[in-house]
Amino acid sequence: VSRRSPASAAAECVAPLDAPHETVAVWQNADGAEFAAVAGGNTRNEGWEGITLVALDSLETRRLAVAGYPQAIVAYARS
């Protein structure tokens, strides 16, 4: 997972992940903090059975177990 620094559109930070991941969805909480959820499954059977959550301000990660090698994750806006 990578994020661009708000100070410079050219600056980018990378959050190293333990295993390959397939897709990412980004969202913002009510306080304005941004997060990414990254699906752990992939088409090469080298992923893991879960989702990695990444806080984009600190790049801190948290892993959640999800059976079945999830390959897709989406974000949607409530209306």
UniProtKB/TrEMBL annotation:
It comes from the Bacteria. This is Uncharacterized protein. The lineage of its organism: Bacteria, Bacillati, Actinomycetota, Actinomycetes, Micrococcales.
